[in-house]
Amino acid sequence: MQQRDAERHLRPRRDRLVDLRAGPAHAGTAGFDTFDGDGTGTGVITINSNGVVVADNETSTATYSINRDCTGTVVFKDADGSIVHFNIYLSPSGNQIRFIATEPGSVIASTDTRVAR
Fold first, then answer.
1. What pLDDT, in 10s, does the model give residues 78-114?
2. Which of 7, 52, 77, 105 counts the most CB atoms within 10 A of its CB?
3. DSSP string over 3-56
4. Amino acid 51: pLDDT
5. Do 43 and 76 contact (CB within 8 A), yes or no?
6. Residue 45, strand partner residues
7. What is the value of pTM for the model shown?
8. Closest alpha carbon to 110 in 96, 93, 95
9. Helix count and strand count (H, E) for the chain
10. Closest to 29 (Cα-Cα) out of 60, 57, 62
11. What is the dihedral of CA 14, 97, 72, 101, to 10 degrees?
């Protein structure tokens, strides 16, 4: 299980991204992801953007791949069908994953840290 601890400048749902042309957006997230070891996973996240909860315990599914050099990709699909792509970087211990969105116009980055069950 991974604990998401991130500040994001855009919401990860593509259908309602915050428009940064109007100025910076302040956002915070909390949630968790579970990666099953078979290239699939699930997650749940709450997102607050500029003081407004824009996702409340929103669920997602994930597909991912990891390379031998600890780089990889993950695609999250929200319950409403919106999709976000990330490049990911695993620590050598496997205890942390860094995420960076690869969608054009997105500014999303986060770190997941392994927690005990």
1. 888 888 899 999 999 989 999 998 988 777 888 888 8
2. 77
3. EEEE--SS-S-GGG---GGGS---EEEEEEEEE-SSSEEEEEEEEEETTEEEEE
4. 87
5. yes
6. 31, 58
7. 0.73
8. 96
9. 0, 8
10. 57
11. 20
Burial of 25 (0-12, 13-18, 19+ CB in 10 A): middle
Q: What are phi and psi of 20, to 5 degrees?
A: -75, -10
The neighbouring-strand residues paired with 6 are 29
What is the band of 17 on the pLDDT scale with cuts at 50, 70, 90? very low
Q: What is the DSSP letter of 1?
A: -
Backbone angles phi, psi at 22, to 5 degrees: -85, 0
